[in-house]
Amino acid sequence: MTEPALEIHRLNQYFEQGTPNENHALKNIELTLQPGEFVTIIGGNGAGKSTLLNSVAGSLPISQGQVKIAGQDVTYQSVAKRAQLISRVFQDPRSGTAPLLTVKENMALALKRGTWRNFWRRGVKHDDLALMKEKLASLNLGLEDRLDAEIGLLSGGQRQAITLLMATLNLPELLLLDEHTAALDPQTSATVMALTQQIVSAQHITTLMITHNMQDALKYGTRLIMLDHGRIVVDLPAEKKHGLTIPDLLDLFKAQSGNELSDDAVLLG
Ligand SMILES: Nc1ncnc2c1ncn2[C@@H]1O[C@H](COP(=O)(O)OP(=O)(O)OP(=O)(O)O)[C@@H](O)[C@H]1O
């Protein structure tokens, strides 16, 4: 039987534990993702979304609980070690690429899983170039003609599309999308979201995506999770989220959590 892509068991995260400011940010989270599931996560301010992704990625040590990726217990593994299994795309288009390197060089680094040693030793091979062109052409943004452009000169949307491509070149066991379209204008955000769906579903990549855009959370992905005060209060499979509207979702959140969804950044449209 295939292992789940991600298993989170009884995950608790505390900040400033044992002090008067103790904050129990994640409370007994249980979450299992089967290979290929694309889960969107929404929730109010401070609900624990980033803490959840940081716990999975390893950038935050785990207070209690267990995280397994593709059957491997990674609970005590470093970010670098987990990066062999996980790719993560952040909100800031500048964070995923090296601005002074060209598109080609950035993609070559991604192909070598970011190891400079392999990069300088091997350079960019002809086969790699063909693959890069093919991948870039699939974005339909004309970027296959910009291989020698410094990536820092591209627009935020172009960079984020390339970052996404780079994050998925080596088929990670798990893709973490951390509000990866939030810094883009609405039209570019829609383009990058459509590309995300295309890449993730074509390659069957297990994905966890935080978004403040309720419409995107409903439109994309195969499952929707809502977090409130460190707990998963709503967990909808594709068939249940199909046809739901934003007011339905807000009602569901209130019924399950007893709270109104309060989020400064939330986009209802
Ligand atoms: N490094 C930290 N030190 C102390 N408290 C923290 C830290 N990081 C997060 N918290 C607290 O943990 C709780 C969850 O925060 P988190 O950033 O995960 O929420 P979020 O759902 O991502 O919120 P937002 O949508 O507002 O970014 C909040 O109460 C927050 O203040």
What overall form do the CA principal axes indicate?
globular
Question: CATH H level of the domain at 1-85 and 208-269: which superfamily?
Answer: P-loop containing nucleotide triphosphate hydrolases
Low-confidence stretches: none
What's the end-to-end separation, in Å? 41 Å
Please, what is the average pLDDT? 91
What structural category characterises the helix and strand content? Answer: alpha/beta
| Strands side by side in the biggest sheet | 6-7-8-3-9-10
| CATH class bucket of the domain at 1-85 and 208-269 | Alpha Beta
Membrane topology: Peripheral membrane protein
GO molecular function: ATP binding
Organism: Lacticaseibacillus suilingensis
InterPro entries: AAA+_ATPase, ABC_transporter-like_ATP-bd, ABC_transporter-like_CS, ABC_transporter_ATP-bind, P-loop_NTPase
Overview of the molecule:
It is a single chain. The protein has 269 residues and is of the alpha/beta class. The strands form 2 sheets. A 6-stranded mixed beta sheet has the order 6-7-8-3-9-10, sandwiched between helices. Strands 2-1-4-5 form a 4-stranded antiparallel beta sheet, covered by helices on one side. The longest helix has 18 residues. It has a domain of 147 residues: Rossmann fold (3-Layer(aba) Sandwich). It has 10 helices and 10 strands. The relative contact order is 0.17. The site of adenosine-5'-triphosphate (ATP) has 11 residues, from strand 2 and helix 1. Keywords: ATP-binding, Cell membrane, Membrane, Nucleotide-binding, Transport.
